[in-house]
Amino acid sequence: VGGEPAGIRIEGEDDLVGTFLAPLAAGFPGALGLKDDCAVLAPSPGSELVLKTDPVVSGVHFLPDDDPADIAWKAIAVNVSDLAAKGATPRIYLMALSLPEAPKRDWMARFAEGLDAAQRAFGIVLAGGDTDRTPGQLSIAITVIGEVPAGRMVRRAAAEAGDALYVSGTLGDAALGLALRLDGALAARLGLGIDEAAHAIGRYLRPAPRVALAEVLRAHARAAMDLSDGLMKDLGRMCRASGVGARVMAGDLPLSPAMRRALAADATRMRDVVAAGDDYEILAAISPAACRAFEAAAAGAGVAVTRIGQITSDGEVRVLDAQGEPLALQRTGWDHFQPR
Amino acid sequence: VGGEPAGIRIEGEDDLVGTFLAPLAAGFPGALGLKDDCAVLAPSPGSELVLKTDPVVSGVHFLPDDDPADIAWKAIAVNVSDLAAKGATPRIYLMALSLPEAPKRDWMARFAEGLDAAQRAFGIVLAGGDTDRTPGQLSIAITVIGEVPAGRMVRRAAAEAGDALYVSGTLGDAALGLALRLDGALAARLGLGIDEAAHAIGRYLRPAPRVALAEVLRAHARAAMDLSDGLMKDLGRMCRASGVGARVMAGDLPLSPAMRRALAADATRMRDVVAAGDDYEILAAISPAACRAFEAAAAGAGVAVTRIGQITSDGEVRVLDAQGEPLALQRTGWDHFQPR
User: Fold this and answer.
1) Is A51–B145 a contact, with Cβ atoms under 8 angstroms apart?
2) Residue B239 has pLDDT above 70, yes or no
3) Is the pLDDT assigned to residue A191 strictly greater than 80?
4) In what order do the strands lie in the sheet with B139-149?
């Protein structure tokens, strides 16, 4: 695929699929070389399938001039993140690719490189899909399919009062990274070093779903979900689904050096940490008896996890500052259909 | 869902999912009420899963002012059609719904009615998905999942020289129907009666995937696929995948009374029959020994099938007229990325 000439456009659907996508499906016999109407999947004995679809659209989830390899990576990563949170091992994905025009060959080659990189990183293979022209923006609808041992998918609705709340990694970096990308002068205003700014932007461009945590969650978590719409909103969803509340200590939220420096310069960027999207970290409720084993297993899997609060029996979800007062925040998360 | 007030908009993602979509998932426990990140599917023992995703986009696959119930129906039907061609029994679907703005409640209620009608007609249930705002057109990316007994999916690439070629139903009606919808004076020019025009338009708006033929194909077909991009193009794909050719007799192609009358008035509408999309009929290659049993089983399933030609050993795909001459046709099918 490398070495495609710049500026030359794809000649047709069969060229696009045969040249750029079929090689990505070579590792999955059930893809039938992308030459059949459907893919066929033989589930592993004793397993159940875990399924998710979440499209990314130009101008909403990525910027039109983002590197096509980053766009492709993100389209897969945001879906694999859900599988990880459910304790599922990624297996295959289908891709519905809607393009505003016949893509240029070098753009498509870069896009395929991003798919390939994500496939290798997450252990997932292209199994099928469709390509279409759209009068709108570039849109990539990925459907991922993973496996869990039967009955072992980690639920969102199973948190119980008294459970400890954990998150993986650090929060807010992707939101900070997007802000940095949109405002070239922001890094200087916040006093961020080049490496710090690059870290945050990288977290926005190439989210790293916590695939390594899947088995750990299956073994030790009472409930889990991935953080895609902001901690407050997603924690609210877990609590509502479980019929519980939560108390989070703002001071315990895990922050990158970049985010710490940004907060020191502008405390209102706390919104990035608790109320912005695109973290793709894991939120997990762990029973008190399982906390030690969970922490050890996560460390063994090479994923940092941080205890940030606990599940309560009332229906309230609160993030408390050092004085025990609720943080005042205007936005409580990303909703595609709510007025800003 | 009925009785939603006109003109009032949806308040947020949770409202949209909870009010309009969750009821559609009630029949599938693995949907978890659409309150979890993912759906979970326990495959039937001894079965394999057959998977397909094919989005529909406003202005490409339907018109923006089409009835939302028809749009919803079509979004599911075009995917279920692929399952039927593969001999698979539909089970569940995921839906990625990208909306240009928060939809009005009465629009969304009609859309949900169309989903519900398709679910009942095809025996499929909503299992999960996602809703998003898009800066582009309304787009609906459905992923369908069906089941076949292990190893029994009907392939596209398995046609053999000497096989008889069959199609289900009649060809060209949807393309004629679209032309009628776009040109209010066309029905009169072609001399179509009101019922004939309504038939063709109905075939465009509400394609009827041949779910009833799935088991028949599994039992008797050597190879099959659904016709979505036009007979010539799709037959060409089957032949290329199988390493064979085909000869089709134009006079044997099954036509509705509407299409017959349109052809009598304008012979160039033959393009609708052989080179236009949206038929969603089945193309099947049947070994000579199996033809009688296939015809009987299709009749038993209540689906008309017509023998239209045969698979040949050369690589050529020809549609021959009554004089045995190849039909001259400029367009050979729908390709999203080829210049017109």
Assistant:
1) yes
2) yes
3) yes
4) A39-41, B47-57, B139-149, B89-99, B125-133
C-alpha to C-alpha distance for A84 and A210, rounded to whole angstroms = 6
Residues 6+ apart with CB under 8 A from B303: B168, B169, B210, B212, B213, B216
Q: Which residue has the higher pLDDT, A238 or A136?
A: A238
Least confident of A54-68, A281-295, B208-222: A54-68
Higher pLDDT pick, A309 / B137? A309
Confidence band for A339, pLDDT divided at 50, 70 and 90? very low
Structure-block tokens of residue A52: 């998710």
Across the interface, of A40, A129, A141, the residue whose CB is closest to B153 is A40
Under an 8 A CB cutoff, do B94 and A225 touch? no
| Interface size between A and B, measured as CB pairs under 8 A | 237
DSSP A107-146: HHHHHHHHHHHHHHHHT-EEEEEEEEE-SS--EEEEEEEE
Confidence grade of residue A13 (pLDDT, cut at 50, 70, 90): confident
Strands (E), chain A: 39-41, 47-57, 89-99, 125-133, 139-149, 164-168, 223-227, 245-249, 281-286, 305-312, 317-320
Q: What is the per-residue pLDDT for B133?
A: 84
CA-to-CA separations, B151 to A25, A43, A60, B49, B144, in angstroms, rounded:
19, 12, 41, 10, 19
Helix (H, G, I), strand (E, B) or coil at A244: coil
> Which residues in chain B have their CB less than 8 angstroms from residue A31's CB?
none
Q: Are B146 and B82 in contact (CB under 8 A)?
A: no
Cβ within 8 Å, pair B35-A102: no
- Secondary structure letter of residue A103 according to DSSP: P
The residue assigned the tokens 């909403």 is A60
Residue B68 to residues A25, B107, B132, B289: CA-CA distances in angstroms? 35, 6, 17, 45
Average pLDDT value for residue range A63-86: 96
Beta bridge partners of A189: none
* Average of per-residue pLDDT values in chain B: 93
CB contact under 8 A, B55 and A141: yes
Contact across the interface for A41 and B59, Cβ inside 8 Å = no
CA of B321: how far to CAs of A172, B30, B252, B274, B313, in Å? 67, 52, 10, 12, 20
Q: Which of B282, B155, B172, B135 is nearest to B222 (CA)?
A: B155
Here the tokens at position B192 are 């179509």
Q: Which residues of A touch B127 (CB under 8 A)?
A: 51
B335:A12 CB<8 A: yes
Residue pointed to by tokens 């209540």: B302
Tell me how far apart the alpha carbons of residues B331 and A215 are, in angstroms, rounded to a whole number.
Answer: 53
Using CA coordinates, name the residue in chain A closest to B52: A38
Q: For residue B227, what is the nearest residue in chain A, using CA coordinates?
A: A37
pLDDT tens profile A273-290: 999 889 999 999 999 999
Question: Nearest C-alpha of chain B: how many angstroms from A46?
Answer: 9
ipTM of the complex: 0.91
Enter the pTM of the model: 0.93
Instruction: Say yes or no to pLDDT of A333 above 80.
Output: no
